[in-house]
């Protein structure tokens, strides 16, 4: 189960109100994409869900339990970043094992999870390499693998494809969609790329200056944008 509920989420940095009251329900197994212009608060909102930062007001519940006071480690979510954030001095296998080593998990279980994820992502031949010996696409697969081995309640992906060249981005988009279908996991995916949002999302959340403008399926957003901003952003004739 990976149901996420946001109620009245606000975030201010000093005098700057970055999130101005966000209410959103993400269903179990749903792939929700946050879109919106640079600086509108997408990463900030994702960090609140992950527990990497605390909201100024509001509550975050996972499967009906209020997790707002809990740290990132106690929320059972996994975040994937644009920058991959792999440890350069460790092998791919060590990078994937790293997050599991403090959990008292048996070595055999860790190895089995790495083997499963490596098979799923087709990175088995890369397990003993270092990140510096990998292409951008391979590094992003490893970063996703590191999230998968944790068997998280939900995956939070912050512009995971934006460092890739255009061609690779299109193929990784399809890979991520296929992975979502196979894992059946809840995913919250942030992008500033409209095409990525339209092709991947079950529902799109359009953000503007810290507020939600509209939440709907790609088709409904395209056909019935709530206002000119949404129409302009999704690319339908306004
Ligand atoms: P997005 O991911 O949509 O591009 P962000 O969530 O990164 O936007 O940022 C939203 C706004 O919050 C920006 O104006 C940014 O400068 C500001 N911001 C984000 N993090 C901090 C921080 N730690 N301190 C101060 N301002 C921040
Ligand atoms: Mg961002």
Automatic annotation (TrEMBL):
GO cellular component: ATP-binding cassette (ABC) transporter complex, substrate-binding subunit-containing; maltose transport complex
Residues in coiled coil: none
Single annotated GO MF: ABC-type maltose transporter activity
Keywords: ATP-binding, Nucleotide-binding, Transport
UniProt domain ABC transporter: residue ranges: 4-234
Domain of life, source organism: Bacteria
Transmembrane among keywords: no
Family membership noted in the UniProt record: Belongs to the ABC transporter superfamily.
Name of the protein in question: sn-glycerol-3-phosphate ABC transporter ATP-binding protein UgpC
Lineage: Bacteria, Pseudomonadati, Pseudomonadota, Alphaproteobacteria, Rhodobacterales
Entire protein: shown range: 1 to 238 of 355
